[in-house]
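So, can you check this one?
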Amino acid sequence: MKAVAYTHCHPVTHEEALEDMVLRDPPEPRGHDLLIEVRAVSVNPVDAKQRAGADPAGEPRVLGFDAAGVIVARGPDAHIFGTGEEVYYAGVINRPGSNAQLQLVDERIVGRKPRNLTFGEAASLPLTAITAWEALFDRLRLPRGGADDGAVLIVGGAGGVGSMAIQLARRLTGLTVVTTASRPETREWCEKLGAHHVLDHAGDLPAQAKQLGLRFRWIFSTTHTVRHWRALCEMVAPQGAICAIDDFMEIEIGRLKAKSASFHWESMFARPVYRASDLLEQHRLLDEVATLVEAGTIQHTLTRHLGRIQAAHLLEGHALVESGRMIGKAVAEGWN
């Protein structure tokens, strides 16, 4: 099968950072696995981080943590879907990824592809939808539906996860949805997705929040959490909560004590990597997202079509992610 893989860690500008290869097809699916013919993939920060920092020691490793495709076979314990069905999913970090023509994926982390989306549009959604959903509703426990006098702050609203978080918070809760962006085009994108207010994260965030008369019961930080930490601790309401997804090892957690505020991590790979008892929740939430998309309640976040699935095009996506200026998601679709 055709695939895009890497054998050593290189910067994105290196000619062998990603390579087009022909690899052995996956084995027959077992257990709950589905064998999926990949039609489209998207690029996430985790792809770039793995390519740059997780050396496979000379063995080809296939990345890719977002895909949409068609089921061609299923294991003996797989009963949610039938062969020929169109699906979308995010895979898992400890198995071969989606940048290949065929991929094995546990059906319990797979959702039905929204009927009104192309494969490319659908591939822009799974990882960010799962991450945003779990952060907002499983970690922060935002109240769903109805009016509420609270406010939620989403730091980094124009990125892939922020783009989904804005939509989910605005459409599924009665909260005031506030996000951050620092450029005119990212501010416009966040407002288009439904943010009530957009703060400039290059400026004084607490001062801007104070001007709006807001203190946040919930804060979801998608990027630069350490840089903004003191500001977030100042803005969080007493007994409020902060959730983060970016990588860091140390933080001044004691700043939350006086407010009895809490801190939460979100990692969408936690359920599948550790085979959590509620693994099926990722399938259910992807199906619910598909229903919301079909109803026009939320939209896909594809903003850059990279062309066919091949090394040069995926490296273009990696470079966009690493630039820190990506809006929405970059997608590659189809094979040569």
In short: The chain has ten helices and 16 strands. The two ends are 12 Å apart (CA to CA).
